[in-house]
Design goal:
The protein is an alpha/beta fold. It is built from 17 helices and 22 strands. Strand 9 (228-233), helix 8 and strand 10 form a beta-alpha-beta unit. It is globular, with a radius of gyration of 24 Å.
């Protein structure tokens, strides 16, 4: 696969918008044998069909500490389940406070005494590049694990997520030997160096909706800077992180530099956030949990925290838009990954002149959406992650109906087993409704009506969140006005979900603190030090 960089859209990445990105993904023959079964249009009961056997074996279910896979200190395990059926895929070691203590101690030794921070930056670069090569070589297995554990369509993980994670690791490998300080002039006879130093032991907590990508977004910059890492996976989706961590050690990462501890938030996550031996914390997840993480950090050693949290992102369709294109883009912006995206375009604001046409076409598009076994070719939507999320989503459907929104289509489960939900569209949604205020994290599209630009700006910004926004218009002036007025970290104009390793991602307000990806993410894992030395009789200042 070519290592060149190109902007990558999740939506265009697997043909949803009719074009293929320049990063061009897995070999077609490689992906083809992973997708048994011809495309069968979803009708009523995909959850009742016999699930396709995933083409991968689960190899790693223990904690990774000091370069070895080991049992939890307590001996406890927990099940990770197949969202298609609710049946157990494997039992995974359950890390808790004692295991976090072991992991942090190993990380501290690796940082204070080990070779990783003392390698040349070029040597670290080479390790990360070898890791990316191994990810590419084992792409089929990684994609299958990610789909099996998380319910994602295999076409999505194989064509988009694995290549993007691989590219991210190559991007940060390239940064490893380009991190440098400055020499700055002073108002007197002093030589002033500004050093960018490694921060130390980084604690990282990743979510269940994109575990592989979040592994790359967090581990990549931390290791490129020379730090040690303790990573806690989400209890719902631990398998892909354990697998790729084994590849990272195969690539030559010294023992103890990366630890992976599956476990639960209140135990393993809380212990990591509170640990006095952790120098930096990064978390992706809900805003509510983010507040707890920030509090635990403050109550312990005041470690700096990066947070990438929830969103209620507006997708704004102006009256000059091509309605058919806008419908497709808005559909993908909301329903991608079963709606389980922090930046989902979950408030679809449509100008009143095209509102009725947009609603009708959105209904038709939702009813064409292919729901079924994520290992079946052509499936667009798999099951939700688990029973708790499934029930929560159906509760929001009830709230929308009870609140007076018009249920245009969907609103029920699919089949009798697993956690499949019908693609759902609400019209006549008002700002004060619960479905317009709260992050649903599911396949529910809420369509709101507006009249003019100033009004939609006020309404779009009237939220605690500020993660992302979409703007669909043919007017450059309107696009520029909205892009500057919307209080969000990312604005996609006439596109959505375009991600690139170099593009920073993060939110305003309660959508987070700091940025992931790009050069900005490196700042999360470096300290800035000023070194001042007197100059005697300098030739110049």
């Amino acid at each position: 696969m070519a290592a060149r960089r190109a902007s990558f859209s999740f939506l265009s990445g697997h043909g949803l918008l009719g074009r293929t990105p320049a990063t061009s993904l897995l070999r077609s023959d490689s992906a083809r044998h992973l997708l048994p079964g011809a495309l069968r249009r979803f009708s009523t009961e995909p959850g009742d069909e016999e699930p396709i056997k995933p083409p991968v074996e689960v190899k790693y279910t223990q904690l990774l500490i000091n370069g070895n896979f080991v049992d939890a200190a307590s001996g406890k395990t927990f099940p990770t389940a197949d969202p298609r059926t609710g049946e157990v895929i494997a039992r995974v070691a359950e890390g808790d406070e004692e295991d976090i203590n072991r992991a942090v101690a190993a990380a501290r030794r690796a940082f204070d005494e080990g070779p990783w921070p003392r390698m040349t930056a070029y040597e670290r670069c080479r390790v990360l590049l070898r890791f990316a090569d191994l990810m590419e070589r084992h792409a089929d297995e990684i994609a299958a694990l990610e789909s099996w554990d998380g319910g994602k369509p295999l076409e999505q993980t194989a064509r988009a997520e694995v290549p993007m994670a691989t590219r991210c690791m190559r991007y940060y490998a390239g940064w490893a030997d380009k991190i440098h300080g400055l020499v700055v002039p002073a108002d007197g006879p002093h030589h002033v160096q500004v050093l960018h130093e490694l921060i130390g032991v980084a604690g990282q907590i990743i979510p269940w909706n994109f575990p592989l990508l979040m592994f790359a977004w967090k581990v990549g910059p931390a290791l490129a800077c020379g730090n040690a890492v303790v990573l806690k996976t989400a209890e719902q989706t631990p398998l892909s992180a354990l697998y790729v961590a084994s590849l990272l050690h195969e690539a030559g990462l010294p023992d103890g530099v990366l630890k992976v501890v599956p476990g639960f938030g209140p135990t393993a996550g809380g212990a990591l956030a509170s640990h006095m031996g952790v120098d930096k914390l990064a978390f992706t997840g809900s805003t509510g949990t983010g507040k707890i993480i920030l509090e635990l950090s403050a109550r312990s050693n005041l470690k700096p925290v990066t947070l990438e949290l929830g969103g209620k992102s507006p997708f704004i369709v102006m009256d000059d838009a091509d309605v058919d294109q806008a419908v497709e883009l808005a559909h993908q912006a909301l329903f991608f990954n079963q709606g389980q995206c922090c930046c989902a375009g979950s408030r679809t604001f449509v100008h009143e002149r095209v509102y009725d046409e947009f609603v009708e076409k959105s209904k038709a598009r939702a009813e064409r959406r292919v729901v079924g076994d994520p290992f079946k070719k052509g499936v667009e939507q798999g099951p939700q992650i688990d029973g708790q999320q499934f029930k929560k989503i159906l509760g929001y459907v009830k709230s929308g109906v009870d609140g007076g929104a018009t249920l245009v289509t969907g609103g029920d489960r699919v089949g009798s087993r697993g956690f499949y939900v019908q693609p759902t569209v609400f019209a006549d949604v008002q700002d004060e409704m619960k479905i317009a205020q709260e992050e649903i994290f599911g396949p529910i599209q809420s369509i709101l009506k507006f009249r003019e630009v100033g009004e939609v700006v006020r309404r779009a910004n009237a939220t605690h969140y500020g993660l992302a926004a979409g703007v669909f218009t043919t007017s450059l002036d309107t696009a520029n006005t909205l892009a500057r007025a919307l209080r969000v970290g990312s604005v996609w104009v006439n596109c959505y979900d375009v991600f690139d390793a170099a593009i920073p991602f993060g939110g305003y307000k309660m959508s987070g603190i700091g940025r992931e990806k790009g050069a900005y993410s490196l700042r999360n894992y470096l300290q800035t030090k000023a070194v001042v030395t007197p100059l005697n009789d300098p030739a110049w200042l």
